[in-house]
Structure prediction request, 237 residues.
Amino acid sequence: QRYEWTAFPKVAQSITPIDRHPFGVAINGVLFDPGTAEFFRGDRHSEWKLEAMTSRMARALDANHAHVQPSGAYHYHGLPTALIARLKASSRSMILIGWAADGFPIYSLHGHRNSLDSNSPLVELRASYRMREGNRPTGDSVPQGPYNGHYTLDWEYVAGSGDLDACNGRHGVTPEFPEGIYYYVITRDYPFIPRSFMGTPDPSFLHRRSPRNRMNRPFPSGDNSMRKKPHLQPKGH
Prediction:
């Protein structure tokens, strides 16, 4: 599978939720793919989808918060810890770790306290999601009991409760884009990897082959093939 994304990303008029397709590609070629194919009682038509990072499925993830799909594709559900360890210069660094399907950059954990001031101290950025309180609705098609984070619907966005917006991103300066750009952040807490796009995702990410025909085997480098469309390279390239 070859993935492409625009080099001139623009904020769209409305956000685009992820629907069973990858969010982006890490700089080592591994996909950021937060969704799962596991539903309450195995019903693929159910609204109650299990979360990989906060349910029993987490036991299947490795130290990089990743695992291999039945197709053979290795992909991340959370922070790519080994990649970050190789890239970071200090315990608090703003590290470019990938590109989203809409062309905006993806960073790990840290950003400037004042997003528009490169001299502002780096802090760990907080997502603006929280676990719902109380009990889930009643009914045979709903997992009974209190919200516990196991399902996507157990979480809700609360504007202003963290540093990031509903797409787990914000506008600000970065080492690669000193004049500022919209960027996404992979966070330590839910949603970990963003679940929606601020821009328009490239169609190459939206097309899913069936598992029988999918070409997701590692390329000679061990990575998925990826290519940015012709663009003006960011500073330092």
In short: The first strand starts at residue 2 and ends at 5. The chain has one domain: 11-206.
